[in-house]
Write a structure and sequence with these properties.
Elements (H helix, E strand, L loop, with lengths): L3 H55 L31 H15 L3 H11 L4 H21 L4 E3 L6 E6 L4 H10 L5 E2 L9 E5 L3 H14 L7
Antiparallel strand pairs: 1-2, 2-4, 3-4
Helix pairs in contact: 4-6, 5-6
């Protein structure tokens, strides 16, 4: 059994460690806040820089820089994640891995199914044609809503920007109708925007039926 002196020494050591970690938390919180403020403040400059680079890329000629040349699509992309190994980095690392995993992680089963579908030459054109038809149907339905601007699309989703309402309110009204769309208003250059993915014909019809409840403003004839 440890002596009373050893117990007191241990208690003092724990208290000292608590003071150190508490100070580290305060410093980390202050640094994180300053970094967040810097990122928010730099967002307009980042958007302007992206516009400028896009404009330069569009006007690039045959003698353009290698980084501005059009390249063939690649079949596989390696994503390198940088994390920390110092201080109280457990939560930081976990958040980094979570942010990377959600959009990019694909299970072995999903990968195998995708490869099998891709090998069927008849499936891909049929799915592309169906996606184009369903996209046109949804775009036509959204175009009747006066309170939004619909962006042109050649992908499997449609982006639209709200003129007056808030993305959270519209998202909630769609959710009440059993329809889930994506709020992308926090993405760069997507302020006030929502995104709907092209699904099956039945899912797309359900989305179109929910438009009247999601946008109470009168639609164009």
């Amino acid at each position: 059994m440890p002596s009373l002196k050893a117990i007191r020494t241990r208690i003092a050591s724990v208290k000292s460690t608590q003071k150190i970690t508490r100070a580290m938390k305060l410093v980390s919180a202050a640094r994180l806040r300053r970094a967040q403020d810097a990122i928010i403040g730099a967002r307009p400059y980042a958007n302007a820089l992206a516009d400028a680079v896009s404009e330069v890329a569009l006007r690039a000629g045959d003698d353009a820089h290698l980084l501005l040349e059009k390249r063939e699509p690649v079949g596989r992309v390696i994503l390198v994640t940088l994390t920390s190994d110092r201080g109280l980095a457990g939560g930081f690392n976990a958040n980094i891995f979570r942010a990377v995993q959600l959009p990019y992680n694909v299970s072995a089963l999903t990968h195998a199914v995708a490869v099998k579908i891709a090998k069927d030459d008849a499936v891909i054109p049929r799915r592309v044609d169906q996606c184009a038809r369903e996209r046109a149907k949804i775009a036509a339905a959204l175009a009747k809503v006066e309170s939004i601007d619909v962006h042109p699309s050649t992908t499997n989703f449609i982006l639209f920007r709200l003129k007056s309402d808030t993305p959270a309110a519209v998202h909630a009204r769609f959710l009440e109708q059993g329809v889930l769309i994506r709020d992308v208003s926090m993405w760069p250059a997507c302020e006030g925007c929502l995104r709907v993915s092209i699904g099956t014909p039945a899912e797309n019809d359900r989305f179109i039926s929910a438009i009247a409840q999601a946008f109470p403003a009168p639609a164009r004839a």
